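Interim report, section 4.2 (structural modelling).
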Amino acid sequence: MENQSDNYTTLSLMTKSSSTNYYKDADRLLLAVDCIIFGFDKDSLKLLLFQRKVAPFQEEWSLIGSFVKKEESVTKAAERVLKTHTGLTNIFMEELGHYGAVDRDPGDRVISMAHYALMRLQEEDKQIAEEYKAQWFEFDKLPDLVLDHQQMVQDALEKLRRKARYRPIGFELLPEKFTIPQLRLLYEVIYQRDLDRRNFRKKILSMNVLEKLEEKDKTSSRKGAFLYRFIPAKYEEMVEKGVDFVI
Amino acid sequence: MENQSDNYTTLSLMTKSSSTNYYKDADRLLLAVDCIIFGFDKDSLKLLLFQRKVAPFQEEWSLIGSFVKKEESVTKAAERVLKTHTGLTNIFMEELGHYGAVDRDPGDRVISMAHYALMRLQEEDKQIAEEYKAQWFEFDKLPDLVLDHQQMVQDALEKLRRKARYRPIGFELLPEKFTIPQLRLLYEVIYQRDLDRRNFRKKILSMNVLEKLEEKDKTSSRKGAFLYRFIPAKYEEMVEKGVDFVI
DNA sequence: CCAAAAGTGTTATCGCTACACCCATGA
DNA sequence: TCATGGGTGTAGCGATAACACTTTTGG
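Predicted structure of the assembly:
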């Protein structure tokens, strides 16, 4: 039979002053957050990594992360990590899952709540990253990572793909103005397969979430491609309804 | 600028003996698991709840849960909780997500990793539940729950629905032999809408994962409905490939 | 003028939806 | 014999997938 501390809910809602007595038999553990940060840079998917400056594993690469503090929520901790290493707030971030094996961190028992985030990459982001000793890697040329971070990255990519099927998630990775070929390229990177130019354009435009601008982007062809922008109201509507977004 | 303990990854992979020195500045927290356990009982969706026997909130209802112990993985903790309250192991269980708000449990700072599980309900399960002071509730007649458990249940149902779209998850809730009307009823309960009898049958059979048996189940009609069974190999194949399973 | 990417339309196929009648059986 | 739920087929529609040529323009 379980001991009483096993069902913590039977003991909850004490006053703060007495609370630690009620839960005193339970183990206290270290809880961390790790962030898998995807960036999209014109035509390739990138990942933000942090280079360890101290031994052991000096110069090896790791996801960015931190311990959760007693007075902050887990989500706040993840946002803090993100802000600390990129200077950014308010970008799309979501829980990936927990990594809770007993021996995952030889340093101590540490459970990590992994989060993944998406951002559009611009020059200034790379500079900020450098200031913080972080670096953007091409997604298909990642170095080895410490602990179970390689697994986290793989899981995050799978979740990203899955998620992109029912949420217009890819949009989070593009600059405000973008071309349809850019958008298609992004989905090709995420799904790692070719998409038919004509069908892709047809499908996207049929959703009526894009506004065509007068300007063209000529960085990738002589002819140039028209720039588009999301119509914010339509975009929000899609997110809320969880519209099917199968490409 | 962050303090050094902020990036725990820069310090990991110490030997066990010295490790606690490295992480000593980080807060140690209570980590719990809570389980949302769905059961399907012939024609209705049920949820397993636990009645608190001690003050405060005596006689109020709660999900079943426990603290994670230092020497067990989070997953193992969830499995322990499940076994403790249902006697069962090896049933479908999956992470739902974390509940990590600072004030979610007035007793202390407790972060909960919620898990949800699916099981086919049979008479013996109800008896086991009773032994452990747990009880199965009709899903649409749930009592108020303590803490943020109501939210967890709602989130679990949403995840269940979402998941059922790309994994043949509903099958986990049925007995080994089942009729097609039963399977349809299950999906009607999950999605809370009516499904066309003919189209449902057509779709399911077209997947070639069901084996028709000679026996009939006559408990719900005079004519009786043929029993079916999953073809294990095909079923596994579907799970692995993540086959689309949109009903 | 030509290389390189952007832009455009049509057709065939497939899957989904909607829908109504007969069947088997126990009471 | 009749009430009850089980079982079946088809036609229309809409979405998807396959596919090739013209346009623009900087060099």
